[in-house]
Write a structure and sequence with these properties.
Length: about 150
Amino acid sequence: MKAYLIIILIFCLGCVSKTKKSPPSESAEIETKKESKTEKSDFYVKFTKVDNRAHVYIDDSLIYKSDYTLGGANEVAYEVDISSYINNSEKLKVVLYNGVEPYDEQVDTYWEIMYDLILDGEVVDFIHEQEQENIVGVAFESEYIIEEWRLNAK
């Protein structure tokens, strides 16, 4: 009988100690405050079609080169996070290269590019261009003023 009462007593004490709430730690509060202070916008270029290779520039500095897509396999899922590059930057440029380097003496009659400009999860602009010309090298180029991109999102 004593053993039975001891087991019940231990079980009850275990339940009481589990239901006690400990005060939140200071480090948890600090983490939350840090996150809210450093909130920033997320800027992405999300490519869904590239034939043959895409480059992304911020203020004329190359920050991204896609892989080559050859033989009509131009559906891709490249997501380029440019958030850390644009704090003091003015221009974003997307360039599509048709063919394969070096771009001399080759025939490539088709090029295509499709991408979204995304700000904080919202598509700000959608671009889809294609041609069936024998352009080798730079086939498409588009430049964006970053501040205008921000304003379009509002």
